[in-house]
Structures are given as C-alpha cells and as structure tokens.
Amino acid sequence: xxxxxxxxxxxxxxxxxxxxxxxxxxxxxxxxxxxxxxxxxxxxxxxxxxxxxxxxxxxxxxxxxxxxxxxxxxxxxxx
Length: 79
What we know:
It is a single chain. By secondary structure, the chain is α+β, with helices and mostly antiparallel strands. The chain has a domain of 36 residues. The strands form 2 sheets. Strands 1-2 form a two-stranded antiparallel ribbon. A hairpin with a 2-residue loop joins strand 3 and strand 4.
C-alpha cells in the first residue's frame, strides 16, 4: 500500500511539472515580428549614416538635420 502511494505521488508531481512547463511556454512572446528594412544614407555635410526616414532630403542631397542642410546650402550656393 505504501509503495503504491509513493508511485502515485511521483506520477502526480511529474504530470504537474509537465503541465507547468507547457503552460510557461505559451507565455513566451514570439519574436518573429516583421522586419522593416530602411534605406540608410549619409549626410552630405558630416557623413553620419542615418535612416532615410529620419533625415532631410533636398534633391539630390541628404542631410541628418536642418542645420546641416542650411550650412551645406550656404557654403555651396552659387555666388
């Protein structure tokens, strides 16, 4: 009788551990989010590489900020 009781307790513990493991796997987030590719360009003034969506485009030039655009246009304006 005692041996069967010990086997029953061991079986219950094993089933509980398996169920706990399976339930914890459902809570893990799926890191397979879609990757959005962005074109990276370099600033015509300083050369810093940033995503095109974050910079300023002044065809055909690209700048990392408004200050660099203004400096570039002032330095390269036809006199």
